[in-house]
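Incident review: delayed structure delivery

Summary: a single-chain prediction request sat in the queue longer than the usual turnaround. Root cause was a stuck worker, restarted by the on-call engineer. No data loss occurred. The affected request and its eventual output are reproduced below so the record is complete for anyone auditing the incident later.

Affected input:
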Amino acid sequence: MRLKKNYFSGRVTLTLLVVLTFLSVSYLVVFTATSPMNLNLKESIQIALENNIG
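Output delivered after worker restart:
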């Protein structure tokens, strides 16, 4: 029973982490797309991905 609870909380933590990462990436992409600086969208996505991996 204890193992099952641990596994479940691990899954929840992982899901939250993935959702948070996705939200931060999409927020960053939207922010750079709407920012007055004419950054290339592809470049900003690349930067966001590199920041998440690092």
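Verification: Helices lie at 2-34, 41-53.
Action items: add queue-age alerting; document worker restart procedure.
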